[in-house]
Amino acid sequence: MKLQHLHPLAAELPDAEVTGVTADSRAVEPGFVFAALPGSRADGRRFIPQAVEAGAVAIIAPTGTKADVPVLESEEPRLTLAEIASRLHHGQPAHVAGITGTNGKTSVARFTGQLWNALGHKAGTLGTLGAVAPGYDYALRHTTPDPVEIHQVLSTMASLGTTHLAMEVSSHGLAQHRADGVAFSQGAFTNITQDHLDYHPDFEDYFKAKLRLLTGLLPEGRTAVICADGAGADRVMEETRAAGRTVFSTGREGSDLKLVDLAPTPTGLRIVVEADGRSHELHLPLIGAFQADNALVAAGLAVTSGHDLAAVLPCLAEISAAPGRMEHAGTKRMAGGEAAIYVDYAHTPDAVRTALAAARPHAEGRVAVLLGAGGDRDRAKRPLMGRAAAEGADLVFVTDDNPRTEEAGPIREAVASGAPGARIVANRAEAIGAAVDALEPGDVLIVAGKGHEKYQIVGDVTYPFDDVAVAGEAAKAASVSA
Ligand SMILES: CC(=O)N[C@H]1[C@@H](OP(=O)(O)OP(=O)(O)OC[C@H]2O[C@@H](n3ccc(=O)[nH]c3=O)[C@H](O)[C@@H]2O)O[C@H](CO)[C@@H](O)[C@@H]1O[C@H](C)C(=O)N[C@@H](C)C(=O)N[C@H](CCC(=O)O)C(=O)O
Ligand SMILES: Nc1ncnc2c1ncn2[C@@H]1O[C@H](COP(=O)(O)OP(=O)(O)OP(=O)(O)O)[C@@H](O)[C@H]1O
Ligand SMILES: N[C@H](CCC[C@H](N)C(=O)O)C(=O)O
Ligand SMILES: [Mg+2]
């Protein structure tokens, strides 16, 4: 594609044939445009000489940047990169729902994809679990990858015939304009509570970043499905309406798909929903009351994408949870009865609270929890996660969860400072073993924080580690044989 046709900022530049775009100088090939972005660890402008050496024909960079090749000077270079990536790797599924919120994005994306597939579409998902569509499965390092990767994935999915995509949009992704080149047809907002205050200067900045999906990236006149329950939901709905987008609200406080009753059953949740002036009773094959909120947001996306409620609701009976979200990992069998062990991806204070509340109705005995907190991430959430654990569980084990480049001991101490009486066991496998050993008949254990993750990151090394496998083995080892 011709450089001049790529972007208005290039219209007056000398012409060149462009073969690709990247923000990483190490990935530049002849004919590429290199986006030189000031970052948190490095300044991309330092790598302009290497990029030119490798064959870059133009540079995207902040206003005032000089180079030996033409420069697209931009006040918002990350936005310009996203716009150019979407033009170069053009084509996307015709219908894209963007999903944000602190917790529940992966679950909503997965449910929405399942509903669309059940309704006869070729649907995919993009987010924490990678990019997945019929005939396509691609691993991603980020929930919302950088714009070049987003548009390569979207373009491939479209060429494989995917018509509908449910896409998670993280606050980092929003703050860094990673998804600004995507044409969203619908938006969704699950909830907002504390996370990522290592990256966002304060909660307000985090809130505004998330809101931008609905008030900025989603075009005016489009519909946003919003869970009306929880702190912040009123403001999200108000600002979304004020920005000229239509709100479809769900949950106990919702007015379009209203949850009026919920009861756990041995295999899931029985819910009653009011919609279109009628009451509908449904069974969801999902463990955890919070999953009803996620399922209703997904149902809202399916309905507002053009399906009758009467067609959508029966499909909810067939949905399945994302791996690592209240996933049953094993059962400890003892002389007097059994104790169940679930793995859950709760890694924020609110998610820990929610997961433990979800476990309580399934426990005839005590609720136990095992948790840690990630290194190189929000430090302020650590004692709050500990406190949520102490308040929601009868037994707390604190251990490691991806210490990354931080010293693990102080992270454990910070979590435990919110949970007096917690047992601290550094090694995660040993901690899981100790927690399983402590279980008595009727107890339920939640192994929190890593969910589907198959690794433990210590320093810069990623070791294989799988909560589901380790907990399953521990349950077997601790069980009395029949
Ligand atoms: C804080 C953060 O989000 N940082 C992301 C951001 O990095 P950055 O812009 O600060 O990059 P930097 O390392 O300072 O480098 C600046 C620029 O120089 C370039 N560079 C660097 C070295 C070199 O030799 N040549 C070169 O061109 C880099 O490519 C970059 O463009 O852009 C990079 C390229 O896209 C990302 O890899 C990086 O993700 C870091 C590693 C990360 O861990 N991000 C996590 C926290 C994240 O994004 N998580 C969210 C949310 C998770 C959730 O709640 O679900 C996600 O969407 O996954
Ligand atoms: N609607 C909800 N309300 C509160 N907590 C929830 C909700 N949905 C999920 N959770 C909790 O959050 C955890 C993560 O869920 P999920 O992976 O769906 O969220 P996410 O927003 O995609 O997370 P991430 O930001 O890491 O990608 C779950 O394991 C559960 O503990
Ligand atoms: N997307 C989240 C995942 C956190 C999962 C938890 N296991 C951790 O490492 O903190 C993050 O990167 O903050
Ligand atoms: Mg996710």
Automatic annotation (TrEMBL):
One of its GO terms (molecular function) is magnesium ion binding. Gene3D superfamilies: Mur ligase, C-terminal domain, Mur-like, catalytic domain, MurE/MurF, N-terminal domain. It comes from the Bacteria. It catalyses: UDP-N-acetyl-alpha-D-muramoyl-L-alanyl-D-glutamate + meso-2,6-diaminopimelate + ATP = UDP-N-acetyl-alpha-D-muramoyl-L-alanyl-gamma-D-glutamyl-meso-2,6-diaminopimelate + ADP + phosphate + H(+). Its main location: cytoplasm. Keywords: ATP-binding, Cell cycle, Cell division, Cell shape, Cell wall biogenesis/degradation, Cytoplasm, Ligase, Magnesium, Nucleotide-binding, Peptidoglycan synthesis. It holds the Pfam family Mur_ligase. The modification N6-carboxylysine is found at K210. Meso-2,6-diaminopimelate binds at R377, D401, N402, P403, R404, G449, E453. Its cofactor is Mg(2+). Residues 99-302 form the Mur ligase central domain. Residues 324-451 form the Mur ligase C-terminal domain. Transmembrane segments: none annotated. Residues 17-75 form the Mur ligase N-terminal catalytic domain. It is found in: Cytoplasm. One of its GO terms (biological process) is peptidoglycan biosynthetic process. UDP-N-acetyl-alpha-D-muramoyl-L-alanyl-D-glutamate binds at S25, T143, T144, S170, Q176, R178. Its EC number is 6.3.2.13. GO terms for cellular component: cytoplasm. Carboxylation is probably crucial for Mg(2+) binding and, consequently, for the gamma-phosphate positioning of ATP. ATP binds at G101, T102, N103, G104, K105, T106, S107. A motif (Meso-diaminopimelate recognition motif) lies at residues 401-404. Belongs to the MurCDEF family. MurE subfamily. Catalyzes the addition of meso-diaminopimelic acid to the nucleotide precursor UDP-N-acetylmuramoyl-L-alanyl-D-glutamate (UMAG) in the biosynthesis of bacterial cell-wall peptidoglycan. This is UDP-N-acetylmuramoyl-L-alanyl-D-glutamate--2,6-diaminopimelate ligase. It comes from Parvularcula dongshanensis. The lineage of its organism: Bacteria, Pseudomonadati, Pseudomonadota, Alphaproteobacteria, Parvularculales.
